[in-house]
Amino acid sequence: MYFLRAFDEKIANLSLQGRVGVYTPLKGQEAAQVGAGLALGSQDWVVPTFRDMGVLLQRGVSPEHMLLFWAGFEEGNVHDTRNLPITAPVATQLPHAVGLAWSEALCGSQACVLACLGDGATSKGDFHESMNLAAVQQLPVIFLCQNNQWAISTPPSKQMAIDAVAQRADAYGMPAHRVDGNDVAAVYQSVAEATSRARAGEGPTFIEAVTYRLGGHSSQDASHYRNVKEELCWAQLDPLMRTKTKLLECGLWSEQQQRSWESHCQQLISEACEHLKAKRRSLSENKKVIFDFAYETAPTSLAAQKHACLSTQHDIVTEHTRPPIPNTWRREGEGQSMNMVSALQLALGEVLDASQEVLLMGQDIGALGGVFRVTEGLQARYGERRGVDMPLSESAIVGSSIGLSLGGYRAVCEVQFAGFLYSAFEQLISHAARFRSRTQGSHSVPMVCRAAYGGGVHTPESHADSPEAHFLHVPGVKVVVPRGPRMARALLHASIQSDDPVLFLEPIPLYRSITEHVPSAIESFPLGRAEILRGGKDVTIVSYGTMLHRALKAATQLQDEHGLEAEVIDLVTISPPDIETIAASFARTRRLVTVHESPRTGGVGAEIIAQIAELYGEVGCFARVAGWDTPIPFPAREQTYLPNVSRIVQAVCGLCTTSRP
Length: 661
Known about the structure:
Layout: H1 2-16, H2 30-38, E1 45-47, H3 53-58, H4 63-70, H5 94-106, E2 113-118, H6 125-137, E3 141-147, E4 176-180, H7 184-199, E5 205-210, H8 228-235, H9 239-249, H10 255-285, H11 289-292, H12 300-310, E6 335-338, H13 340-354, E7 358-362, H14 378-382, E8 387-389, H15 394-406, E9 410-417, H16 425-432, H17 435-438, E10 448-453, H18 468-472, E11 478-480, H19 485-497, E12 502-507, E13 516-519, E14 531-534, E15 539-543, H20 545-562, E16 566-570, E17 573-575, H21 579-589, E18 592-594, H22 604-616, H23 638-641, H24 645-656
Parallel strand pairs: 1-2, 2-3, 3-5, 4-5, 7-8, 7-9, 9-10, 10-12, 11-12, 15-16, 15-18
Antiparallel strand pairs: 6-13, 11-17, 14-16
Helix pairs in contact: 1-10, 2-7, 4-10, 5-6, 5-15, 13-19, 15-16, 21-22
């Protein structure tokens, strides 16, 4: 505990000196964190908040790693421990804890998961969805709430109309304990009892550790909202002072031991600071890691951006090639005619047969078979363990799928309509898309999120949305749309095999309106590739999903009535798009039309046209200077990501020094 206090104060001072970034102190909460960490076994997981350095250090994360993290390097999250990385959005990590606990329960292990949170997090929807799901599934997870009396500047009295945070657990039928969070032994005992319950299969426990944040919310917070009387009162309950007094009374500690330990701790802190000093320059100069971990394999467009970023440096840029379309694709063979619903159902059955790691989860996917009956019969065939009916909680559905995928499974979750994805938007963009880059490839999220989308069948409001363009702006998540039964089956196989998260959008009008021959042999269509469906020399038309079929009909009409030959391309993967196939077609036709049902401004078509204009537009007219197509990196490398004066000047000079035809 003393080391934790001294290290915490050191990092806070480094932050004030500008030597590390903004820091969130934990002074006053040492007993809660050390006590909890001591109660866990080596097989257990910790899912931390941004103020849980004490638990992480107790669990084997080195001081050097913690300093790297607070200095703004993703390398601080790369450690061989059963701890998820620190993430910032409050409470959004809790569904991951539930998913991880689920993965441990499914494989029959004795491990449990400690999910850390603060009192402010209990006002968030993700907290309630996670508590409910953990209780319904009776999962081995311990929710440790460190009630430090302040959610930044908001006290509990303005957050909740109950006397104790622990009362929140009553609504979920979950055992709850309220303990003195400044008593390390009391916290240890409470967490140890909760782990025993979890290992015995008795489900989750909620623990409120009542403590106090003696420092500010962050190193930049002067805490003017607190009064001196309150601070003095809690200072008398300082966990370090209480623990030392108790040890001295029991004859387990001495002033000589105290001095020796203080010296040792200062030595450890000095070594960690020296490590940061020695590593900072080389790590800062390693800019290519921004690009290396956005996807399992970088798309060609991102490889080009990496080359542009590193072109003035001595880094070696490896060429990337697009995944090839198998030469067996679209060959005729034995099979049967079916619609898209049957093709998707066939693919799901095939992957469930092939791997015990594949799980299906979503609202009404069991007895009902999903709103559109895509999962009909699968729960009866594979059991409720692998076909899980979930509560009406989109964030918990997607978030727990992330946790299950982090735990070694491949979750295929269903959100009934794409218009309902907004409830899970943060899980997809802040976590599914970023885990790989956040941990430099130490963790990946091989999950698929299925959702029905699109208009044309008279569904109610929010049931016909086409939100794909939102995700075009989210590096790290792949977005695909099948055009028909055969592609749907092949694309779903590829999506489930991918180690990147995939949003699989299924066009509602195509579920039963098209029947195709689907071969008996399993096929897979590569993510990131478009497909030319009709050749032509006069114009290129790019579309996907339902609108693709209208584009094909338009191409026929153009040929018959106007003598124009249109080349029609199925984009297939919306993000990241296959610009190479489109560019090669445009090089032949010199005309481009994009077709999609989502809004025009900022849409998929706008991005395609912008990229083609940069490549083939009138010479000396177009250039874009922007952030790279990666998650924004941690602070130490964010200037490499952000547009700078040099990039702007280079872009302008590139236009103005080029002769126009």
